[in-house]
Design goal:
635 residues, Chitobiase, domain 2, TIM Barrel, Immunoglobulin-like, 3 domains, 8-stranded parallel barrel, 7-stranded mixed beta sheet, 29% helix, 22% strand, globular, binds ligand TNX
Length: 635
């Protein structure tokens, strides 16, 4: 009797080793069933047939498991003799298509000594493998090999497929350069969360990053600027002969390598060449391309645009001259080479934020307007975009651009990336054009995600909670025109991979879920629980992430008699917030926030900290009263 009890106890503790599934993105359906699956050194991966894609997926999984666990896992063909001591992970391409799961879906069953991932296409197997790995403890992500006798995942049956086919992240490599290895790492992190488009913002005012063999100055001149740290637009302008040492570019071989690396992981790479605005790096290389004679230099993040309530003007002409035929000859060369390098069906031509103030003074543009009967400068931009659209089409690609390409008339067949909210997406979908949704108020990953006083300087805030409210299909729009969406990481204030990761995670968890999971997956509190599990996985993988979800939200409001009232809240549930005004550090024995508080006379700083279950979870935020008054609009 005692022995049986002991055996039962052991069994229960063993099976309870398997953690609760905490998957991101949430699968379409998940059922816990059977006992947990065990991975050990005798485990084998069995493929249903000798299909090269299938074998590649099997090797991909065995390689991952080898580096993390040290187990040498054999890949065998179904029917070949098995090691009886071992458990089996079977990968299978459906002979008869499973219509429910489509091109990227999969089913996964794991229990006891057998797991099987089935899909119609290799991409589905790849996503099934990502899910399977997420079912194991965090050490399966560890950078260092973790030695254990066996690993377990809970017994499950999962059916899963994406809501959208376009699930992207945009990386701006112009404002700051990211090496080839860093871009690969960015892709590695994306695919764990089932992203499948890398939108690569390759050119901008601060640097041209892609080798164009027929126009070598684009990179020999256009890829280099003066190094600066500090706040964009506030940095010291370069001195006339200051060395231009900051930058870099990808050779065409580098590009091919990255495209292949992405393809092996089912990621399409969308190249962006941003014209006719945001073109200062190109103009620095070939000054004949803008309409304002002069010499130009790649921008080093110093101020060169003037933003005002009515819009913006360029202080330096960073635009291409749409009335100059040479411009189109250059673009033909550039887009021709780009089309050769990138297999994806779309090329992004930018089109955003093109200042018109230099165009307005340009005689050749005036002539063009008369000749082509263009009534304003929006129509001039539209003329440019349409002509470029023809070039892109000639090179066998479809054009996509930022929502400004709607202004003055949308080019035939063009897809629109809606960034200034939903508006552009709604308009384009009504015109029956394909749309990718990237509304800045939900998915701009350059916006700060916590208390602005502590975060990198940027003009807007976007907390993960708000990102989780992203809904890719705007009301009243036919979903068939919405290809999907993206999170966009602009990098004016993001100088390297670690800070890029910090800005991306955890908000890209929320975006991944909105793009993959069914529309009804919207339980935020439950999502937060999974996010916390994944923080540990990112830590194991040495991927940086923000912890700003724990930071109290501080709001300063003007109360009666110009008093400043402070409101404290949090973006996740279950936190207790403590504060001080007396220059000492608050802990959980200090006043706990329950209702708005007035700033006491002579206070210098507000200090705030969040606890959960008696333990500190947030940073301590020290914020000057002068700043709080500024926010409340009180002198
Ligand atoms: C607007 S979004 C831009 C970028 C900036 C970004 C900063 C878009 C199409 N253009 O050039 O980097 O804002 O948030």
């Amino acid at each position: 009797m005692k022995k049986t009890l002991l055996a039962l106890f052991l069994l229960i503790t063993l099976s309870s080793q398997a953690q609760e599934p905490a998957l991101i993105p949430q699968p379409v359906s998940l059922e816990k069933r059977g006992s947990s699956f065990e991975l050990n050194k005798f485990t084998q991966i069995e493929v249903s047939e000798k299909n090269p894609d299938l074998v590649r997926m099997a090797r991909f999984l065995s390689q991952h498991l080898l580096t993390k666990t040290g187990f040498q896992i054999r890949v065998i063909l179904a029917g070949e003799p098995k090691d009886n001591k071992g458990t089996t992970i079977s990968l299978s391409l459906n002979r008869k298509e499973d219509a429910a799961i489509g091109e990227e879906g999969y089913t996964l069953e794991a229990s006891g000594s057998y797991s099987i991932i089935r899909a119609n296409k290799p991409a589905g197997l790849f996503y099934g493998i990502q899910t399977f790995l997420q079912l194991f403890p965090k050490d399966i992500e560890s950078v260092e090999m973790v030695k254990k006798d066996y690993w377990t995942c809970p017994g499950v049956r999962i059916t899963d497929y994406p809501r959208f086919g376009w699930r992207g992240l945009m990386l701006d490599v112009s404002r700051h350069f990211f090496t080839k290895e860093e871009v690969k790492r960015f892709i590695d992190d994306m695919v764990k969360y089932k992203y499948n488009v890398l939108h690569w913002h390759l050119t901008d005012d601060q640097g041209w990053r892609i080798e164009i063999k027929s126009l070598p100055k684009l990179t020999s001149v256009g890829a280099w600027r003066v190094p600066r740290v500090g706040r964009v637009s506030y940095v010291t302008p370069p001195k006339p002969d200051e060395p231009r040492t900051y930058g870099g570019f990808y050779t065409q071989d580098d590009i091919k390598e990255i495209v292949q690396y992405a393809k092996d992981r089912f990621v399409n790479v969308l190249p962006e060449i941003d014209v006719p605005g945001h073109s200062l790096a190109m103009v620095a290389a070939y000054p004949e391309l803008n309409g304002t004679p002069g010499t130009y230099q790649v921008n080093s993040l110093e101020k060169f645009m003037n933003w005002h309530s009515g819009g913006f003007d360029a202080l330096v002409d960073n635009t291409l001259n749409p009335a100059n035929d040479t411009v189109y000859q250059y673009l033909d060369k550039i887009f021709g080479e780009v089309a050769q390098l990138f297999p994806f069906e779309y090329i992004h031509m930018g089109g955003d934020e093109c200042a018109k103030n230099f165009w307005a003074q340009n005689a050749s543009i005036k002539k063009l307007m008369e000749k082509e009967n263009l009534k304003d400068l929006h129509e001039v931009q539209s003329y440019f975009v349409k002509r470029l659209g023809g070039i892109i089409q000639k090179h066998g690609k479809k054009m996509i651009g930022w929502d400004e390409i709607l202004e003055g008339g949308l080019a035939e067949g063009a897809a629109v990336m809606s960034w200034r909210g939903d508006k552009g997406g709604i308009e384009a979908a009504k015109l029956k054009h394909p749309v990718v949704m990237t509304p800045n108020q939900f998915v701009y990953l350059d916006f700060n995600q916590g208390e602005a006083w502590l975060e990198p300087p940027i003009y807007a805030n976007l907390r993960m909670k708000k990102t989780y409210q992203f809904e890719p299909v705007p009301d009243g729009v036919d979903p068939k025109f919405i290809l999907g969406g993206q999170g966009n990481l602009w990098t004016e204030q993001v100088p390297g991979l670690r800070s890029a990761q910090y800005m991306v995670w955890p908000r890209a968890f929320a975006i991944a879920e909105k793009l993959w999971s069914p529309k009804n997956a919207k339980d935020y509190n439950q999502f937060v629980k999974r996010v916390e599990v994944h923080f540990e996985r990112l830590d194991a993988a040495q991927t940086k992430h923000a912890n700003t979800i724990y930071d109290p939200i501080i709001v300063a409001k003007k109360g009666e008699n110009d008093k400043v009232m402070i409101e404290l809240s949090s973006e996740i549930e279950g936190l207790d917030i403590y504060y001080s005004f007396d220059e000492t550090h608050p802990d959980n024995f200090y006043p706990k926030y329950t209702a708005p508080v007035a700033i006491p006379l002579d206070a210098i700083n507000l200090k705030v900290v969040a606890y959960r279950s008696g333990k500190p979870v947030s940073r301590q935020i020290d914020i000057p009263v002068t700043e709080l008054k500024r926010r409340a609009g009180v002198k």
